[in-house]
Amino acid sequence: VESRGMACSVYGAQFLLDALYNAGNADYALRLMTDTVSDRSWMTMLRAGATMTWEAWDLKYKSNLDWNHAWGTAPGNVVRRKLMGLEPLTPGWESARLRPCLGSLQWAKGTVPTVKGDIIFDAQQTDGTVSLRITLPANLPAVLELPLAVGRVLQIDGKATRRQSAKDGYALWNLPPGTHEIIYKI
To answer: At what angle do helices 26-33 and 10-22 cross, to 10 degrees?
Structure first.
């Protein structure tokens, strides 16, 4: 897959990026989203003066393209769902999943609005240690999911904590609403 680059349409980019994150290739997904060289990139659109994503990567791929396609905004949801790993587990954000996948990214910050209130995400990564600060609204519990390879123990709010369960290759910890400091090694 890596040898082909963004060998898909703007629409197909959503599925390619999701697949890369699901396969554990966060670094390559991030490189595709931030590519400044290829003509199949969001930077191509920006350089050409786009203020919204286009129907195709460039005029050379579709000469009669129109310039307002929300389907081409994959990074807008991939960063929240895959990089930060924030997704609803149940309808209406009754509960959430936190499955961060930073790859080699040194830091990431973001606010995710939900019907329950904002989730605030702040991650720093140095020398294989991830420090994550997550704020969950008062009525929104979450499940923290980390690959089993991360280990059985991590620090949550200054205390060493063993995983509570495991599922599909992930160690799981329940997080109640509130602000949590989480530290783990990759």
So the answer is: 160
Specify the higher pLDDT residue, 151 or 7: 7
The Cα–Cα gap between 163 and 173 comes to 6
Query: What pLDDT band is residue 6 in, cutting at 50, 70 and 90?
Result: very high
State pLDDT tens for residues 22-42: 999 999 999 999 999 999 999
Three-state secondary structure string covering 67-108 = CCCHHHCHHHHHHHHHHCCEEECCHHHCCEEECCCCCCCCEE
Q: Smallest Cα–Cα separation from 132: which of 144, 123, 141, 119?
A: 123
| Total-model pTM | 0.90
**What does the block give as tokens for 172?**
């799981």
